[in-house]
Amino acid sequence: MSFRLTYATMYNPPETMHERFEAALARVEATLGARHRLFIDGADRDAAQHAERHAPFDSALRLGEFALASQADVDAAMAAARAAYPAWCATPVAERARLLRRVGDLLEERVYEIAAAMVLEVGKNRMEALGETQETVDFFHHYADDFESHAGYTHVLPDDPIEGVASHNASVMRPYGVWVVIAPFNFPLALAGGPVAAALVTGNTVVLKGASDTPWAGRMLADCIRDAGLPPGVFNYLSGSGRDVGEALVQHPLTAGITFTGSVPVGRHLMQQMAGGAYPRPCIAEMGGKNPCIVTEHAELDRAAAGIVRSAYGMGGQKCSALSRLYVHESVADALIGRLQAQIAAIRIDDPRRRENWLGPVVNATAYDNYQRHADALRAGGASVLCGGARLGPGTAGRAALARGYYVEPMLADVPLAHPLWQYEMFLPILMLHRYREPDEAMRLANDSTMGLTAGFFGGADEVGWFHDNIEAGVTYANRPQGATTGAWPGYQPFGGWKGSGSTGKAIASFHYLAQYLREQSRTVVE
Prior knowledge:
36% of the residues lie in helices and 22% in strands. By secondary structure, it is an alpha/beta fold. The strands form six sheets. It has a seven-stranded mixed β-sheet with strand order 15-16-17-14-13-19-20, with helices on both faces. The protein has a five-stranded parallel β-sheet with strand order 10-9-8-11-12, with helices on both faces. Strands 1-5-4 form a three-stranded mixed β-sheet, covered by helices on one side. β2 and β3 (43-45) form a beta hairpin. α3 packs antiparallel against α5 and α3 (93-109) packs across α7. The longest helix is centred in the N-terminal third of the chain and has 24 residues, at 126-149. The termini are far apart.
């Protein structure tokens, strides 16, 4: 198939993609209710306790029973990873890269089944799920290629200028040891698989913990890594709560480094923990976003409306890159709002398994209740609700078909600038709008956040340079209808945040990412 699936191309796939997804969904649904175990030291491992998981779009749909790791399981996984580290670190770069590419190949062979499971588990639509699975494939291939292209980051340096002595120097990058990856619920495969691939190809061994809401995706990744033939202990998978399993991993004496994706408060807590102890350990924290978009009076409004709706409401706004703050020039605000209202009204909200439905549920009861709380707070704070603002699932008089799922309406509100939610990441399909007069005002407001992950812009070609030179964000998009603030893809757009959105200033899948999993050793040898 010549079609190349990315988040930018996913809006018009070939018919065969839908046919293959439907067949895979039927196969996956036939397996529902199974018990899923941990993966430690090359083998499945039973747990003393399990949690029953149900689909967020239908509380009656039982997905299965998923293991809850104990302290003993954490210790076993860490010990296995530590024991496997010397041999894996000594494995030639070409062999590590070959095995990582094989993982990517297996993910690609299973792309439809894995995507179907994520639709069931997360509630995202099929194209979002297929995109995430293919993105994970690309992470494994990209990092293998990237590390080999850098020759393992080994550099021969000039000899010391000592007459009559051969004093040879080199800079060598070495892995840290056991690397812990803590993945979020919203991209449970890609934001697990990406850092896992980076840590493994650079010679670290890995213990992965999946989010408690989405343990199935991590288990499917573990299956691909197992079947690719990586040695026992090199990769281990645990599931359970962040409070129990996550804390145990962070505090474990064998933990050499961590990659975390999640909220700013949790990320900052982990950074502080990793900085303490006998010596500081690396913590790559990819945290939240409160992402702005500026629309000038010179913008092409149809293009802007498409990009805004896709970024604000795709996957229910449950993306760190989701658009949540919209600043529109007052002269075009009404015209843009009309286009946004028309596009929002056309969104199909229902069972994400069905092809015609673009928006599924939010992930759980907490998110569902938070939506109501934030909608009420916006109204109480003087917001003018332009679209949405209602829950459609449990506890409402909505459609009977939605009664067992956590469905909510996409919300658009014109909000006074004094409202505190301008500064708070809601992680929901809620977009706040402000009409501005002067460009400097729009830029000041766009940068008025402790976070700086992504930012969008729609305006004239001669204004794009001004936007890029002044915006405080790690990922920027100008005049992009495929997504005003969303849609980064390995090999095309590095993804990382400034300010409170990231701990390192280096972006995922960038030229600088893999080096974070390594530490430099200067070597001098005198003959």
